[in-house]
Amino acid sequence: MHTSILRLRSLYRHYQQFRPFTEPEAWVLFKIAAIAEAIGWTLLIGGIVLRDAFLNGNGIPVTIAGRIHGTLFVAYIAAALVLAPSLGWSLLRTAIAALCSVPPYGSLIYEQLSAHHRTLSRAQRFRNTVSYQLITERQ
Question: Is residue 37 part of a domain?
Fold first, then answer.
């Protein structure tokens, strides 16, 4: 049991060091994945509406849209897992990003909240840098 935990910790450390993208590149890719996943939801919902309202129960649109949505869903989860280290996300934040793909348009909401949080963090770092420079100049 103890060796399993040590192995998991080691695997997680290696995962955190895997950063194939810069942070700005990772944000662009994550945004694309979130938008694509939302498009998948739109296609699926559209297929259901077509089936029920116009095609008298013919399930072909739902089948096609469902496959596209499923592919985009898996791509979004893969993007969240691969991009998380480059984005500096914790394991919990990565899990939340993945879970947000389950409700319709949840990926878009999560992406917007993350972008807002990123903007606030960058503004805070800027304020801290300026404050530090002002304090050190006076001394």
Answer: yes
> Is 88 inside a domain boundary?
yes
pLDDT in tens, 112-121: 999 998 888 7
**What is the rounded distance in angstroms from the CA atom of residue 42 to the CA atom of residue 118?**
27
Instruction: Give residue 82's domain range.
Output: 21-138
Residue 8: inside a domain, yes or no?
no
Spatial contact of 111 and 96, defined as CB atoms under 8 Å apart: no
Q: What is the pLDDT of residues 21-59, one digit of tens each?
A: 999 999 999 999 999 999 999 999 999 999 999 888 899
Give the other-Cβ count within 10 Å of 65's Cβ: 21
Quote the DSSP letter at residue 103: S
pTM, 2 dp? 0.82
Q: Which amino acid does the sequence have at 76?
A: Y
Does some domain include residue 6?
no
